[in-house]
Input
Amino acid sequence: MEWEVVIGLEIHAQLKTASKIFSAASTQFGAEPNTQACLVDLGYPGVLPVLNGDAVRMAVRFGLASHSSIAPRSIFARKNYFYPDLPKGYQISQYELPVVHDGWVDVVLDDGSRKRVGITRAHLEEDAGKSLHEDFHGLTGIDLNRAGTPLLEIVSEPDMRSAKEAVAYMKLIHQLVRYLDICDGNMQEGSLRCDANISVRPMGRHEFGTRAEIKNLNSFRFIERAINYEAERQIDIIESGGSVVQETRLYDSGKDETRPMRSKEEANDYRYFPDPDLLPLKIEEQTVESIRADLPELPWEKRDRFVESYGLSDYDAGVLTTARSTADYFETVASGGADAKLAANWVMGELAGALNKAGIEIENSPVGPDALRGLLSRIADETISGKIAKEVFESMWAGEGSADEIIDGKGLRQITDSSAIQSVIDQVLADNPQQLEQYRAGKVKLLGFFVGQVMKATRGQANPAQVNDLLRRSLDG
Amino acid sequence: MHTRTLAELAAALRDGDFSSEELVGHFLDRIETLDATLNAFVTVTRDQALEAARSADSARADGQAGPLTGLPIAHKDIFCTRGVKTSCGSRMLDNFVSPYDATVVGRLKAAGVVMLGKTNMDEFAMGSSNETSWYGPVRNPWDLNKVPGGSSGGSAAAVAARMAPAATGTDTGGSIRQPAALTNTTGLKPTYGRVSRYGMIAFASSLDQAGTITASAEDAAMLLGAMAGHDPRDSTSAEVPVPDYLEALGQSLSGVRIGLAKEFLDDGLDPGNAAVLEQALKVFRGLGASVEEVSLPNLGLSVPTYYVVAPAECSSNLSRFDGIRFGYRAEDPRDLTDLYKRSRGEGFGAEVKRRIMTGTYVLSAGYYDAYYLKAQRVRQLIAGDFQRVFQDVDLIVGPTTPTPAFDIGAKVDDPVTMYLNDIYTIGVNLAGLPGMSVPCGFVGGLPVGLQIIGNHFDEGRLLNAAYMYQRETDWHHRVPDGFSPESG
Output
């Protein structure tokens, strides 16, 4: 039988606010345990939450970018359960009335086609702390630095039909939250992570199958693998006459499998109810409009503009706009008069390779966009060849100076003086009488040999087109 | 000096009749002598109090004294006080020393008020008799075999016996007004949102409100002015300006329309209480106010509504007491579940557990709509009744309690009968209104209270009515035998 996989994602994006969602403590990652938790985060007797307005503005930014509705009135609710890293015994979240709802995004798939994924809702909530099970010899340590960090939980419709589609959607959200500057997108540190709801059904059937939820996937690779494993598992169960149990599962990347997280008896009844410590969140139309006016160019808008204004292919535009910082870099290079296609090739090729190898973000590239433009303009005006340019780039990367300084310092300027090239040619022909005789006897493919000799003699600096031209004339003449 | 009101003591300090140190020392001595009998205090902060009094005296010498500088009061042990044990009447917090001051405590401290100590209370403010305290029952100074009411029973007994000229309290369903009525003190529960809840250990967040227990309405006005106002740390505290409550006192009641809700005069009302209430209404008529009968048809639903909403909120609010970060922790837990179960099982008393279980039940899947949601709807109906009545009258009056104080132990095994003691006060919390209880007479030698209810943020009018009533009557000046001027 042919099976269809149905996937919906719940993505948790940690918002880039300076302080926590309900307290004034810092949200900085990586501090000593429990140094960034104030009395509110610790759930001390008598303390009260106060909503951070920046978190709300960030949620609205996401809502507007994802074509969603912004609720003029939304409600914070308490999700009640006991866990040592949840200090109050409840998490403040949004349940019945989320701040953002009913939107969509278009995801571009590998084959270039577009897939629309519905956004059911996006709600604000606080993160819990962390339980540390290592280093305590049978005990558990609690680090509450993360407790109270603002999260935006973005819930999609079950619109995806393959692991690849799910990953493409996750990548789009990853791209979008970074464009909006509301999340740093660092999946390794857990700033962006997701739960995947997966079910299978016979191809063509309308009703959904029973779903399992895979918790806490924090890399694109794990999302793809976990979904593929889980879909296979469910298909195997059904094909061998069993039925899928609705449950929460964990993906074990070491074993590449999913397994149940908790049994049904331990299932929590979260007893959601409106948090009486927080007033309903009211957002005026005027506020929404001022946030809308402040939205940056969105990834898909930028991509279309790159195709249109710079004449790039859809693919190149897509690659360059993956991250806003790369797109900005490219535009600084290209808008300064450099040839756009050349700039695109260099940013995606030589520069990306070097950054990748060194593990450096483009914002911190040792060769900045202005410096790169300096190099590209020397290619364009034929001061150096593309091959020499790569050499110059390496020197620039090593901090040896600007393109011009390196070209001049190392004497890499391309030789375009015909008489200079001609004298080298004459010398090469004089040094290789045998080959000259063979060539003139009809072995014309020896032209390449002569070109090589001339380039070698000029250390690659002779203008290749001129060399070809002049050589032909000398050989044939 | 202890029979004087806070206002009189303020004047005496101003006039230099005695120092704050002398005044504070006098009340500390009274506590030492009398509290072994009454059990109104959980903690007495003698050294800090005397030090604060000396600071107040030197501030006065420097011309830096405000109207409240150097006056002693007691705080209900539900308010967090920095460096001082804050138990909330529970074994769970018997070892808890708060690292910070509640906003109410901080504001009064900033105004120069001196804290004498922390008063006993029903555990986590859950009770109407002060019998659920981990520290044992408080005794009513009017009859040591009677309860003082609750949950602010320690504050009420302390003021009634003049171990403190005034005290703070909190009122979730009547916890200021009911004990004030049973101890012949003046209790004020302000509008929900009038006073910050920050640092006040939460019982039911949508109902809890801080207020005062004093010897007079004038004293309540003095303290409220210093306590009230928006607090950026409490999102539910209202951004409504705080008027000068003292200024509003003394205005004629001529033309003031008072509503007597007929639902208050039900079968449960003790005939003695009813007779006293009738006398009080005569006084108001004499002051020029008109009294007319009004109706709050849904008021009868307030007790069941309250006993869904308040436990629901408390079941969540009290989850933080888990033995992990502060408070009581069971010894040698086997595992996490055992740690939770025994810490909470041993740390909380029976009434608190009863309410946590009730609240957990009404919020659970499948019951939420039938209980919690329905209770919220009824709450709206009750609030709507009050708003309708306030279109026609300025104030509503009635009894504070159905009966005078009852015997210690009489209702402790019958929670429902106990809950019914708050039948007249709970509606006010559900509607978020300000309410007062003022002494209005005695039944069988025990004091009873007159409840006065105002519209939202109309504390000025409410306090003025109580003040004018107290100018005409002397019930509030009466001090129980054994705690009278001669005995101290």
Notes: Residues 369-389 of chain B form the longest helix (21 residues).
